[in-house]
Amino acid sequence: MSEMRPSSPPKTTELLGRIEDFKKRGSNLRGKTQASLGVYWEWLLCNYSHQIVETVGTLEFTDPQLVPLALIQGITEEGTDE
Fold first, then answer.
1. Where are any strands of DSSP class E within the chain?
2. Alpha carbon of 70 to those of 36, 67, 73: distances in Å?
3. Is the separation of the CB atoms in 52 and 18 below 8 Å?
4. How far apart are CA 37 and CA 29, in angstroms?
5. How far apart are CA 5 and CA 8, in angstroms?
6. What is the Cα–Cα distance from 40 to 35, expressed in whole angstroms?
7. Which of 35, 19, 31 is nearest to 65 (CA)?
8. Could you report the per-residue pLDDT of 70-79, keeping only the tens digit for each?
């Protein structure tokens, strides 16, 4: 039996832009460059980014200054993209 791997959503120009924006946001929160997103986050952006932007106005709806430092350090130490 072959291993099943998740597939990414179709990469439209709009989705690629949203992915880049989300990676920049992640880089700002983590304090280091986020090179990629996991498939989960790509699908999340594909399916829900329109609704988030329509409701909140942006994908940058959290102020990095208000995110607890311990949370950012935990995310950075994990070293995962998902």
1. none
2. 23, 9, 5
3. no
4. 14
5. 10
6. 15
7. 31
8. 766 666 555 5
pLDDT for 82 equals 46
**Torsional class of 27: left (φ above 0), alpha (ψ -120 to 50), beta (otherwise):** alpha
What's the CA gap between 75 and 53, in Å, rounded? 24
Say if CB 37 and CB 81 are below 8 A apart. yes
Residue 72 to residue 75: CA distance in whole angstroms: 5
pLDDT at 28: 80
Q: Dihedral through CA 50, CA 14, CA 44, CA 7, nearest 10?
A: 150
Which residues lie below 8 Å from residue 21, measured CB to CB, with a gap of 6+?
A: 59, 60
CB of 20 closer than 8 Å to CB of 14: no
